[in-house]
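1st attempt posting a full record on here, be nice pls
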Amino acid sequence: MGYYLNLDLFLHDVFVQYALFFDIIKGKRTMLRYRIDLQEALKNKGFSTYRLQKDGIIGSQAIQDIRHGKMIGIKTIDVICRLLDCQISDFIEYIPDKPD
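the predicted structure (as tokens):
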């Protein structure tokens, strides 16, 4: 039963992410940003950017995106969740646009 609970939580996180992307596509302005320094968090777990690239864990473009504060793809988010043993909301936050 616990497996399904974790799957439900994962699917909820994925749904939230896709809902945010659909808002962007429909022309609504949304803001996603990193809550933490992902490079530093990965480094603290023993994953330098060199190791991530050399071992094929995360691609060089995704590492550059993280370095420059750009959002990464869902596959990279999945990898980071596994490496850091965390949820998406532990390192990405949504900041709604203020109404005009």
